[in-house]
């Protein structure tokens, strides 16, 4: 950092030196330069030295830069759950959870049919990769995926209804719909990066993506668009989703994890649990349909009549998904017995059946063990994954 400061400050010093030499040698009269212009140039050079000194020695050390100014250190976005500064009083916490439950209920009802219908594994990996390259916090990638899905649902539906209202034959409508699909596919990169830009402004405002940076990203991925086109795309997406941004699923994980202390559930390493829960949430986003199929298979294999008739609506229920990710994380860090005990407390906090939480957790771990062993390499107990499942279903 000091070397960077020196490299920036030396040109200004050289400029002041030559200006002083120019004055002492009488070059002012020979060149017929006005005194006001020279004084303004000298004052501006001194101001630059002063401002750069303040920036590098006072402002820069206290900011968490996303650029590589101080080396290759990547910013850390882990939460400090042990800090009591952000604790919410009891009555407000109860009201907050009522608000979360109501919001989750509305989200579940509105997204039960079309939730993630326009996001396959390849699209989710595309969004997550861009956010990882830009070193965005985890909330940005999840919110961006939900914004993109909601926009595509509205946009495609409106385009389809508009073509149906046209006074054309069936062949002409089919041809027009083919052209519309080509335009939608051509603009997919613009829509994805615009969704990331909106999510960054909502969750990471001080280091959010500007239009110029967004244009550079699109150019890098092979889709050149002007900043003006990016602004129009941003406004169009906001109008399509009615200016209502979705909740980050991490909000449910963090709220429940922070509230466990009030129920005498003392977790020694809450930050580690949070990191594991976010990883499980990544798996949920990428393989949600496969995990739901695994859940249905597990429920179908149970011989009890009370359980075989159960159907767990998972899509759109981010409170249930967040609780299941948290339970999986506790199972990986502390073991399956601790996860069984904590899942009952999580059910009391969220008013969700602990049986549903554990069933979805078992399906997630079972899917990881059977299909994607590399995901669970960091957890010794999850690499086998049979103990939790056996105890749950026996």
TrEMBL record:
It comes from the Eukaryota. GO terms for cellular component: site of double-strand break. GO terms for biological process: reciprocal meiotic recombination. Gene3D superfamilies: Cyclin-like (1.10.472.10). Residues 121-245 form the Cyclin N-terminal domain. This is Cyclin N-terminal domain-containing protein. It comes from Mesorhabditis belari.
């Amino acid at each position: 950092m000091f070397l960077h400061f020196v490299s920036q400050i030396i040109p200004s010093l050289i400029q002041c030196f030559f200006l002083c030499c120019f004055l002492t040698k009488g070059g002012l009269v020979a060149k017929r330069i006005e005194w006001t212009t020279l004084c303004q140039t000298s004052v501006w050079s001194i101001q630059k030295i002063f401002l750069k000194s303040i920036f590098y020695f006072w402002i820069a050390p206290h900011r968490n830069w996303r650029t590589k100014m101080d080396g290759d250190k990547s910013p850390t976005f882990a939460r400090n759950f042990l800090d009591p500064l952000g604790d919410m009083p009891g009555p407000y916490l109860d009201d907050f959870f009522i608000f979360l439950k109501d919001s989750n209920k509305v989200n579940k009802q509105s997204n039960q049919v079309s939730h993630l219908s326009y996001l396959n594994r390849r699209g989710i990996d595309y969004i997550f990769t861009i956010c990882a390259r830009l070193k965005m916090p985890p909330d940005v990638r999840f919110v961006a995926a939900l914004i993109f899905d909601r926009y595509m649902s509205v946009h495609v539906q409106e385009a389809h209804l508009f073509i149906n209202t046209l006074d054309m034959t069936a062949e002409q409508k089919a041809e027009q719909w083919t052209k519309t699909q080509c335009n939608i596919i051509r603009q997919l990169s613009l829509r994805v990066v615009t969704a990331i830009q909106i999510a960054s402004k909502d969750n990471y405002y001080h280091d959010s993506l500007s239009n110029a940076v967004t244009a550079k990203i699109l150019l890098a991925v092979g889709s050149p668009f002007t900043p003006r086109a990016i602004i129009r795309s941003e406004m169009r997406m906001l109008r399509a989703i009615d200016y209502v941004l979705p909740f980050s699923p991490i909000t449910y994980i963090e709220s429940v994890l922070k509230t466990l202390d009030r129920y005498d559930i003392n977790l020694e390493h809450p930050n580690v649990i949070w990191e594991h829960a976010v990883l499980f949430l990544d798996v949920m986003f990428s393989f949600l349909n496969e995990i739901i199929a695994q859940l249905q298979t597990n429920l179908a294999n149970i011989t009890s009549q009370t359980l075989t008739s159960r159907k767990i609506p998972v899509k759109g229920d981010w409170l249930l998904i967040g609780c299941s990710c948290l339970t999986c994380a506790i199972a990986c860090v502390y073991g399956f017995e601790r996860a069984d005990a904590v899942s009952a407390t999580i059910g009391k906090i969220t008013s969700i059946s602990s049986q549903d939480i554990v069933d979805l957790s078992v399906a997630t771990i079972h899917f990881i063990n059977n299909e994607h062993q590399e995901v669970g390499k960091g957890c010794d107990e999850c690499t086998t994954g049979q103990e939790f499942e056996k105890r749950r279903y026996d």
